Amino acid sequence: MKIRKQYVLFINPMLGMAFYGNHKFSRRINEATLGEIYDCTFSELKENLRHLLKRGYTISKRNY
């Protein structure tokens, strides 16, 4: 049985920034109101980050 990790992607279009992280980051960011929060698998995360980079977003990984 393969266990798939879930990642959280937080996009703030006002600042042009995107943050992604693990379950610790998910607990911290789940009350955010200024952006959009997405749960995704690793392959979905890579694809989303590629699209955001093409649009000029700044991307940062968060571990906490």
What is the secondary structure topology, with strand pairs?
Blueprint: E1 7-12, E2 17-21, H1 23-29, E3 36-40, H2 42-54, E4 58-62
Parallel strand pairs: 2-4
Antiparallel strand pairs: 1-2, 1-3
Structural notes for this entry:
- The chain has 64 residues and is an alpha+beta fold.
- 31% of the residues lie in helices and 33% in strands.
- It is built from two helices and four strands.
- Strands 3-1-2-4 form a four-stranded mixed beta sheet, sandwiched between helices.
- The longest helix has 13 residues, at 42-54.
- It is globular.
- The termini are far apart.
- The relative contact order is 0.31.
- The mean pLDDT is 89.
Quick structural summary:
With 64 residues, the protein is α+β, with helices and mostly antiparallel strands. Helices cover 31% and strands 33% of the residues.
Low-confidence stretches: none
- Find the count of extended strands (DSSP E, 2+ residues): 4
How would the global form be characterised? globular
Strand pairing plus helix content: what structural class? alpha+beta
Helical residue percent band: 25-40%
- Individual helix count: 2
Radius of gyration from the CA trace? 12 Å
The major sheet is characterized as:
4 strands, mixed
Spatial arrangement of strands, main beta sheet: 3-1-2-4
Report the mean per-residue pLDDT as an integer. 89
Distance between the termini: 28 Å
Proportion of beta-strand residues: 25-35%
Q: What's the order of the H and E elements?
A: EEHEHE
